[in-house]
Amino acid sequence: MPTRRIIFNRLALDARIGILEHERRATQPLHIDAEIDVDIQRQVDDHDIHTVLDYRQIREAIVEECTQAHVNLIETLTEQVADRLMRDFSEIRAVRIRISKPMAFSDCAAVGVETFITRSPS
Predict the structure, then answer these.
(1) Which of 27, 38, 57, 114 has CA atoms 20 to 30 A from the CA of 83?
(2) Residue of 81, 103, 102 whose CA lies nearest to 35
């Protein structure tokens, strides 16, 4: 089945993440990059948003998953976001999520973790 890729580039938000004491007391900025492969199940109708997966809904799910509760490890958060997208959107075939902490170190732009998962063929 053909696929279409939806891309989020550096979605910026503040989240409660980290295992260190100062990270537990305050939010910190995160950058999220995502590539979402979607099965093309029907022809696109330029006048009907329902003929495509509305990326506003994907963004909303990513933001909600990243901001709903404190998470200790960035590895955990990337897996939670990927799992949520696969669970909530049946037309998604594969998800690559990269979450970065731009304030983690002063000597690099960011440090992050990437997770890639695919749906098992039916």
Answers:
(1) 27
(2) 81
Domain ranges of the chain: 3-118
Pair type for strands 92-101 and 111-118: antiparallel
Start-to-end C-alpha separation, the chain: 12
Distance separating alpha carbons of residues 80 and 75, to the nearest angstrom? 9
pLDDT tier, 82 (very low <50, low <70, confident <90, very high otherwise) = very high
Residue of 89, 91, 87 whose CA lies nearest to 57: 89
Q: Which residue has the tokens 């199940």?
A: 41
- Distance, in Å, from the CA atom of 21 to the CA atom of 16, rounded to the nearest integer, reads 12
Assign domain 3-118 one CATH number from 3.30.470.20, 3.40.190.10, 2.60.120.10, 3.30.1130.10: 3.30.1130.10
Q: Average of pLDDT values for 87-98?
A: 96
pLDDT per residue as tens digits for the range 3-41: 999 999 999 999 999 999 988 999 999 999 999 999 888
